[in-house]
């Protein structure tokens, strides 16, 4: 166990997360939107999904990946803004340039967040807290935007810390604080613990990291499968994952395990559309387009199938993802079998500006 602990404790990891990134840019560039409840993406007609909501809208419960119709129910005065991804990408590049003043060990997670390893920073500052403060100050001075920072000795804790004092906050969790911090953490805040797993944990009277810590590694594996090993280690402060500046993304997607088994086709379509919106949003944040879409279906008896379809040109738009996933579902021949999980992923990526498709070329569905 000691060999697992000591190497990572020497690292200085910062997680930078921009505050309501798309919405903050729109409010910055349009003074009339400042202080207003706005949603980037979606529409006042109730079509589409919200990509990002301003903090004013979040007070009403509006969240990213929420259907526009639901967002309007929660916040009737919501203002919808058409996204300007070219602007968001340009801002993201500027933020990346700020990071590079301090380190080349940068692992972007999306346009608006990244891990930085500043164990040995370029300027010889030595203090991760000082570096995080300088980065946040530079983002404010040069871009008139705010960012929150989490600082610790591991990626897992730094990421959680960055969310603790949003917006415009900074949180440091040192080595001596980690185990206590993890013990107090609600189970739904653990990386990899989704809604269904969190509900299962709570049914087992497991509400915090301290509760999880009472289980042996064997019990963790028994109840939660392979992720149980990760939970066992992380609640003890063990996370040796390095910042990976050149991580290659081979696939990207989303999936959900339902609270109850689904057999009605219209309900399956609704769930599939929701998952498709999540995938489209994640692809847009990473500026990725893929040629191959894969549908994953797990049945109530835990048997699983996958179906995929490839196109000649890369794509990332919601309509193509949604329609292709629906057609793959139709062709899967589910019959009256009940479904407990649906997933959509894209792979076979290509840089969006480097394909041979001519202007106006359309994707050809089945």
What's the gist of this structure?
This protein has 366 residues and is of the alpha+beta class. It is built from 14 helices and twelve strands.
Describe the structure.
By secondary structure, the chain is α+β, with helices and mostly antiparallel strands. It has 3 domains: 13-166, 2-Layer Sandwich (Alpha-Beta Plaits), CATH 3.30.70.270; 179-234, 5' to 3' exonuclease, C-terminal subdomain (DNA polymerase, domain 1), CATH 1.10.150; 251-350, DNA polymerase, Y-family, little finger domain (Dna Ligase, domain 1, 2-Layer Sandwich). It has helices at 2-9, 21-29, 55-58, 68-74, 85-100, 128-143, 155-162, 178-184, 195-203, 209-212, 217-224, 227-234, 265-286, 318-331; strands spanning 13-18, 38-40, 52-53, 79-81, 106-110, 113-117, 147-152, 170-172, 251-262, 289-299, 304-315, 339-350. β5 and β6 form a beta hairpin. α11 (217-224) crosses α12 and α13 runs antiparallel to α14. The protein is globular. The protein starts with a helix and ends in a 16-residue tail after the last strand. Mean pLDDT is 87; it is low at 1-9 and 351-366.
How many strands appear in the DSSP assignment? 12
- How confident overall, as mean pLDDT? 87
CATH first level of the largest domain: Alpha Beta
Helix-strand topology string: HEHEEHHEHEEHEHEHHHHHEHEEHE
| Strand order in the largest sheet | 5-6-1-7-8
CATH evolutionary superfamily of the largest domain:
Reverse transcriptase/Diguanylate cyclase domain
Number of helices: 14
Q: Indicate the proportion of strand residues.
A: 15-25%
Radius of gyration: 22 Å
Largest sheet: 5 strands, mixed
Shape: globular
Question: Structural class, judged by helices and strands?
Answer: alpha+beta
CATH architectural category of the largest domain: 2-Layer Sandwich
Helix content: 25-40%
């Amino acid at each position: 166990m000691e060999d697992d602990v000591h190497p990572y404790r020497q690292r200085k990891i910062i997680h930078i997360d921009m505050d309501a990134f798309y919405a903050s840019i729109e409010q910055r560039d349009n003074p009339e939107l400042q202080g207003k409840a706005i949603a980037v993406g979606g529409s006042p007609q109730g079509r589409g999904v919200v990509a990002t909501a301003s903090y004013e809208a979040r007070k009403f419960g509006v969240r990213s990946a929420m259907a526009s119709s639901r967002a309007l129910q929660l916040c009737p005065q919501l203002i919808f803004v058409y996204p300007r991804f070219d602007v968001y990408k340009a801002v993201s590049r500027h933020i990346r340039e700020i990071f590079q003043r301090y380190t080349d060990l940068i692992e972007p997670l999306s346009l608006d967040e990244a891990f930085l390893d500043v164990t040995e920073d370029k300027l010889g500052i030595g203090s991760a807290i000082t570096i995080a403060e300088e980065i946040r100050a530079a983002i404010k001075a040069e871009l008139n935007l705010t960012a929150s920072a989490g600082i610790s000795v591991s990626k897992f804790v730094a990421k959680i810390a960055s969310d603790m004092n949003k917006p415009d906050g900074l949180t440091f969790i040192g080595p001596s604080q980690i185990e206590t911090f993890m013990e107090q953490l609600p189970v739904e805040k653990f990386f990899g613990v989704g809604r269904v797993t969190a509900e299962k944990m709570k049914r087992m009277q497991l509400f915090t990291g301290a509760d999880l810590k009472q289980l042996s590694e064997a019990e963790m594996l028994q109840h939660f499968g392979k992720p149980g090993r990760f939970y066992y280690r992380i609640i003890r402060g063990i996370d040796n994952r390095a910042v990976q500046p050149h991580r290659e993304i081979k696939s990207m997607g989303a999936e959900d395990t339902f609270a109850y088994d689904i057999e009605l086709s219209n309900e399956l379509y609704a769930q599939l559309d929701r998952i498709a919106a999540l995938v489209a949003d994640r692809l847009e944040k990473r500026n990725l387009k893929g040629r191959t879409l894969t549908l994953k279906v797990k049945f109530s008896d835990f048997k699983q199938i996958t179906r995929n379809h490839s196109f000649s040109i890369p794509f990332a738009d919601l309509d193509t993802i949604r329609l292709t996933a629906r057609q793959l579902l139709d062709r899967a021949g589910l019959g009256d079998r009940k479904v407990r999980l649906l997933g959509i992923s894209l792979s076979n990526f290509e840089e969006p500006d480097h394909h041979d498709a001519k202007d106006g070329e359309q994707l050809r569905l089945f």
